[in-house]
Amino acid sequence: MEQIIENLSGLPNGAASGSGAQAVERALQLLSIVGRAAEKGIALGDVVAESGLNKPTARRLLMALMRSRLVEQDELTRRYYLGGELYVLGMLASRRHGLLEMAGESLRRLSGGSADTSFVSMRRDDYAVCLHREEGTHPVRTHALQTGDQNPLGVGAGSLAMLAALPDQEIEAIIGRIEGVIAVQYPGYSPEIIRADVARARESGYALNPGRVIANSWGIGMAILLPDGRLAGALSIAAIDSRMGETRQKELAGLLRQEVERVQAKLVTLFSSEKPVPRKTPQAVRPRTPEPV
């Protein structure tokens, strides 16, 4: 929170706390204004008019919100939208309208039909976060992923499925940022391996982790997309290697595809009241913050 206040006020931590609090209040006001614009987005001039702030102040606060990924700006239209971090926080906090709630029945069907453990995950910056783990009935279970665990994108089946669903340029940017973490913490991976895994996932239609995180623990995953094509998350199934032969991979991929389609249909219903403006190459989280105008 101190870092956010510092970004908003332009003052060092602990200095002029009253000014910092005022900046936070103003930023939250702008966040609410951007939120009311929903999928249509809002221009800077309209933000200024609605907020009563002068243009330089509104620009500075919007820039701070963009650095925190609470707001994003469309590169083509220059309009402002709620950012990917708000979506992540909402998913983590809400069981009523979040991805976790929407995927609950699907996880139960996946684990019931496969007898193996299923997961729902979502992206947070350059990482995948496991929102829930649904146990299967098979007596031998994997321990590769627990609720709340996070791995760099590309590490693990659901994580790889999400990475493969992103544009190529964004994938390369992510690999560049996580390369150091991969080298230190994930000996089964390298940038070259991740790129090859992405290519295979796109070709086959599902992501496969052949025991690279934990030996003998395999996983298969598939991305979930929002109605506008942005990444929402992923469903995945984990099992011991003897239960992940090629024939069964295709069977599990079929189960995953059915449940991904069901979750995506729920997302369509959720967003059906909105009429989004077409946007160029939408992304879940933008790697760079464009200069507002």
Automatic annotation (TrEMBL):
GO terms for biological process: negative regulation of DNA-templated transcription. GO terms for molecular function: DNA binding; DNA-binding transcription factor activity. Keywords: DNA-binding, Transcription, Transcription regulation. Coiled coil: none annotated. Residues 274-293 are annotated as: Disordered. Residues 21-84 form the HTH iclR-type domain. Residues 85-269 form the IclR-ED domain. InterPro entries: GAF-like_dom_sf (IPR029016), HTH_MetabolicPath_Reg (IPR050707), Tscrpt_reg_IclR_C (IPR014757), Tscrpt_reg_IclR_N (IPR005471), WH-like_DNA-bd_sf (IPR036388), WH_DNA-bd_sf (IPR036390). It holds the Pfam family HTH_IclR. It comes from the Bacteria. PANTHER family: HELIX-TURN-HELIX TRANSCRIPTIONAL REGULATOR, ICLR FAMILY, TRANSCRIPTIONAL REGULATORY PROTEIN. This is Transcriptional regulator, IclR family. It comes from Xaviernesmea oryzae.
